[in-house]
UniProtKB/TrEMBL annotation:
TM regions (residue ranges): 15-35, 72-90, 190-213
Domain J: 103-165
SUPFAM superfamilies: Chaperone J-domain (SSF46565), E set domains (SSF81296), Sec63 N-terminal domain-like (SSF158702)
GO cellular component, one term: Sec62/Sec63 complex
Pfam families noted in UniProt: DnaJ (PF00226), Sec63 (PF02889)
Biased composition (Basic residues): 524-537
Protein known as: Translocation protein SEC63-like protein
Gene Ontology biological-process entries: post-translational protein targeting to endoplasmic reticulum membrane; SRP-dependent cotranslational protein targeting to membrane
Alphabetized UniProt keyword annotations: Chaperone, Endoplasmic reticulum, Membrane, Protein transport, Transmembrane, Transmembrane helix, Transport
Length: 766
């Protein structure tokens, strides 16, 4: 490739373009993601001021002592980057001004087509001003002036400029590299090679190796794969597992072992403090000889979990720090346990493992999560989750008039009744209690079950795939407050909700009735001649799109053929003397056919709209899944949990009678206001009425679980036709003699066919 040459940037102009693009690519997304977003600290009006919450706030601040310094350094770094970007952009704009298109007429200040005398006159005038020896001289401007003068006075240079835009003629093609030339200079080669070696031979392999080593040891939820294997082993070994044993397995997680986790701290004081703590705890089963349940790290973690659930005060400089670290890891590990049990249930259904894990096992795993978050045992009163309330205050919640056992019941009381129960509290303490209660969740369930992509979605046949759509509506507990104003407002909302729900149910019932009606084309088939092979085959069970489509075509053909049949009927009636009666009957029949046809078109249009709505819903759900699941919902009041906890929920379907799990638990992590979940399972193989339960469990609060029963009337599955409708149509076509169909039209009567057959017989005899 002659005339081509590669060169580095001598002046540094193109390098500034490269630097400008590089800084913009880094700063624009970096500012959005890395700029410290200081969360507005909740004022005293909105947050709890109990002693436990104050300790947690102090603990969170002490865990990040350099948080303010890091935020300040990050802001200064981002601001410095933007300042550099602005300076580079200004430099580039100057380059654009200096290296603008070369126009000799504009430089000399003469119009296009000026004579040589005018050009020389303008050149002399400007030379006296721009010459470097003059006081007003400018070397760069004088060089441009000289070049413009030469371009217009020299005939060859003028032709080159007019033809190529350059007085020197066409230039050779050159490829520039947007890097300064000092990179390839000999005296800088050692430093450049050293930098390349440091980045590409040391830093990059190290980062990739660390990432790979971590990725092969952890699952997607950052749980050690060896821990997951241990969970599978114990849950497969013990299909029905008590809560106490679930705690033992959780404490044996390898995340709490110094050998597998470098963040674990082992102190010399553990030899004295851990045995002393074990003596304070009963039923710890520290003498269990199962591996790894008997290891020292497992016994220590189990003792710390028992101390956390019993709210035992620990040494803040040693065991309490270990407790905080273990408790922070527990929600992720419990979610992994739930996933493991779900996988074992699926394997048991597939008959790959002999034992099916009991539903008590997975529910005990779920039950353990709110126990850890709230720092209390399951047999304790849920009212202990509220601030300032202790075991001594619980006696005031039970009396002859009322017996308050849950937070929901307490919230539904009137203000004076609640204040009477907590009369020993100060006004500030009572306000804190009501703030916490008002922010707690109140979940409403809307459950709908159907068989999707079926002609009648409300009919459940044996072995059908049942889809249960559960809509979770999250409200604050303050909506249940028994104050007069709030109560009236809540009753209005409930009434309007019930009325709206009733209207929706009526619409749904009307739609189901329309769907369950027999299509028009099935009714029209009954009017055909009986005994013919084609009509008998058309009366097979409908359920396949091809058969339905062909039947609809036949119905439309029958409607189109109605006028000709009416004319034939009128002629026959005229011959017998009953013309008026025959015509009236035919008109009535044609009107019925038209009504049925219009009704069939209306039903089919509504079916199309319904299918389109379902399709759009599926697309939106698929896009939501592709976008990723959020982890932000509502903060939990959890003073004994060392980190900020968000509200998460599990939802699944179970058979309470057989104690089995029908669907894998779905983890809802973004329930801010509403969330819709679809759960699918296979209907029982035997006909009958079955009752299944939709369960919603909280991973953050005790006593907030809900259940909703659904009844399925399972019918016997229809027999699958031995012959396909398409094949039946093909058989009919093959049985017809060749050449007959071409001579006969759809308006031909049976008498015409008989006459034609007689004529053929006579012709053959002749």
């Amino acid at each position: 490739m002659g005339g081509q040459k590669f060169q580095y940037d001598e002046s540094g102009g193109t390098f500034f373009y490269f630097l400008l693009s590089f800084l913009a690519l880094l700063l624009i997304p970096g500012t959005y993601y890395w700029w410290p977003h200081n969360r507005k600290e909740e004022t005293t009006v909105n947050e709890c001021q109990c002693d436990d919450c104050k300790k947690k706030k102090f603990l969170l601040r002490s865990n990040e002592p350099w948080k303010g310094t890091k935020h300040l350094f990050t802001k200064l770094l981002i601001i410095s980057g933007w300042l550099i970007l602005i300076l580079v952009a200004y430099k580039v704009s100057q380059f654009d001004y200096e290296y603008a298109n070369f126009d000799p007429y504009e430089i000399l200040g003469v119009p296009l087509g000026s004579s040589q005398a005018e050009i020389k006159k303008s050149y002399r005038k400007l030379s006296l001003i721009l010459h470097p020896d003059k006081e007003t001289g400018n070397e760069k401007a004088f060089m441009k002036l000289t070049k413009a003068y030469q371009a217009l006075t020299d005939d060859e240079a003028r032709r080159n400029w007019e033809k190529y835009g350059n007085p020197d003629g066409p230039g050779a093609m050159s490829f520039g590299i947007a890097l300064p030339s000092w990179i390839v200079e000999k005296e800088n080669s050692v430093w450049v090679l050293g930098l390349y070696a440091l980045v590409f031979m040391v830093a990059l392999p190290t980062v990739v190796g660390m990432w790979w080593y971590k990725s092969i040891r952890y699952s997607g939820d950052q749980v050690l794969l060896e821990t997951t294997q241990m969970y599978y082993f114990f849950f497969h070994k013990t299909p029905s597992m008590a809560l106490k044993r679930v705690i033992m397995i959780l404490a044996a997680s390898l995340e709490f072992s110094k050998k597998h986790n470098g963040e674990i701290v082992e102190r010399q004081t553990d030899a004295e403090e851990v045995p002393h703590l074990i003596k304070q705890i009963s039923n710890l089963s520290e003498k269990n000889q199962e591996r790894p349940l008997c290891f020292a790290y497992s016994v220590k973690a189990r003792a710390l979990l028992y101390a956390h659930l019993s709210r035992i005060t620990l040494n803040p400089n040693s065991l309490d720090k270990d407790r905080q670290y273990i408790v922070k890891k527990c929600p992720y590990l419990i979610q992994e346990m739930v996933n493991c049990v779900s996988q074992l249930v699926l394997l048991a259904y597939a008959r790959r493992i002999p034992h099916l894990p009991n539903i008590d096992t997975i529910e005990n795993c779920m039950k353990l999560s709110p126990m850890i978050v709230q720092g209390m045992w399951e047999f304790k009163s849920p009212l202990l989750q509220l601030p300032y309330i202790t075991d001594e205050n619980l006696k005031y919640f039970s009396s002859k008039k009322r017996h308050i056992k849950s937070i929901q019941q307490f919230a539904q009381l009137k203000n004076e009744d609640r204040r009477h129960i907590l009369q020993s509290f100060s006004n500030e303490q009572y306000e804190d209690v009501m703030k916490v209660v008002g922010k707690m969740p109140y979940i409403e369930l809307q459950v709908r079950s159907e068989v999707i992509d079926d002609e009648n979605p409300t009919v459940y046949t044996a072995g059908a795939i049942v889809t249960v759509t559960v809509k979770l509506i999250r409200q604050n507990m303050s909506d249940l407050f028994g104050d007069d104003s709030v109560t009236d407002k809540h009753e209005q909302q409930v009434a309007s909700g019930f009325s709206k729900l009733g209207e929706d149910e009526e619409k749904e019932e009307d739609r189901k009735e329309e769907l369950t009606k027999k299509p028009v084309w099935q009714k029209q088939q009954k009017k055909g001649k009986k005994g013919t092979k084609k009509n008998i085959k058309n009366q097979k069970p409908v359920g396949r799109p091809i058969a339905a489509k062909k039947s609809e075509d036949k119905a439309s053909n029958a409607v189109e053929a109605a006028p000709s049949k009416q004319e034939g009927g009128r002629k026959a009636a005229a011959d017998t003397g009953d013309e008026s009666e025959g015509s009236d009957d035919d008109v009535e029949r044609s009107d019925d056919d038209e009504d049925q046809h219009s009704q069939g078109e209306k039903v089919s249009a509504e079916d199309d709209d319904t299918e389109w709505e379902k399709f759009q819903t599926r697309l939106s759900k698929r896009e939501k899944v592709l976008e990723g699941r959020s982890k932000q919902s509502h903060s939990v009041h959890s003073p004994f949990y060392p980190e900020d906890k968000q509200e998460y929920w599990w939802i699944y379907i179970s058979d309470r009678k057989s104690r089995t799990l029908l669907t894998s638990p779905y983890h809802v992590t973004a329930l801010v206001e509403e969330e819709e979940v679809q759960l699918k399972f296979t209907a029982p193989r035997w006909p009958g009425v079955y009752t299944f339960t939709v369960c919603v469990r909280s991973d953050s609060y005790l006593g907030f679980d809900q259940t909703h029963d659904i009844k399925l009337d399972v019918k016997e599955a229809a027999e699958v036709p031995t012959e396909h409708p398409q094949w039946d149509m093909l058989d009919d076509e093959e049985e017809e003699p060749e050449g007959d169909g071409s001579d006969l039209s759809e308006f031909t009567t049976d008498e015409d066919v008989e006459e034609e057959q007689e004529d053929k017989v006579v012709f053959r005899t002749k």
